[in-house]
Every structure is written in C-alpha cells, then in structure tokens.
Design goal:
mainly alpha; 4 helices
Length: 124
C-alpha cells in the first residue's frame, strides 16, 4: 500500500471522528454555534490524525514523538483555525447547512495537510 493510500485511509478515519463528534455536540449536546462545536471536535480529529500519521501513514520513528508533536501542533492549529473560520462563515454567519460547510472546510484542509505532514512534521 502506498503512503498516499495510507494517508487517504487515515484522513477518512480522522475526518469521521471529527464529524461524529461535531454532530454529537450540535445535535445531542446542542451547542448553538457550529464554529465552537467544530473547534472542540477538531481536537479529537487532530489527535486521531497525528496518531494515524505517525504509526500508519509515514511510519517514521527516528524522531521522537515529542519532536513530531512540536512540529505537528502549529501546523494543525493553523488548519483547525481555517476549518473553524469556514464553519463560522458558512454556518454561523450565513446559516447554511453545517454538513456542507464541514465538507468544504475539509477539502481545504486536505490541500495543505499532506504536504505539511510529509515535508515538515514527519519529513519523509
């Protein structure tokens, strides 16, 4: 299996975790701001993504987990910020469907995360 295929599988899994927590927070917990719920859900999605990237996608263990985390956190803080801004504009400001906003934000996220992980965080 290629690295890119593993990246897709990991990304789908992490996105599923992120979206499931988002739905839980909006529909069950009833947080009234999609951007706030999205930011909270992103923490679990990002954690899932890091673990999958480290142990499944890139499988590089020369650097310590702490070294990789120190590079990963700023990258994903930026990505989570962009994701949250898209959700705020799409859902909280315009009132459009949060699922479509999530899909749009996730598409933008994918554009930078593979390259950021490959060349910055896990340096393959």
């Amino acid at each position: 299996m290629t690295m890119f295929n593993r990246y897709i599988i990991n990304g789908l899994w992490a996105t599923g975790v992120h979206y499931a927590v988002l739905v839980l927070l909006l529909e069950v917990v009833q947080i009234d701001k999609a951007s706030v719920a999205n930011l909270m859900a992103a923490v679990l999605g990002i954690t899932t993504s890091f673990l999958g990237s480290r142990y499944f996608v890139f499988q590089k263990v020369e650097d310590s987990a702490w070294q990789q985390i120190l590079r990963f956190v700023p990258l994903y803080a930026l990505i989570a910020g962009i994701h949250t801004c898209v959700m705020w504009v799409w859902t909280d400001h315009f009132g459009w469907n949060y699922t479509l906003g999530f899909l749009l934000a996730t598409g933008l996220q994918m554009a930078g995360s593979f390259l950021g992980n490959k060349y910055l965080v896990f340096k393959t």
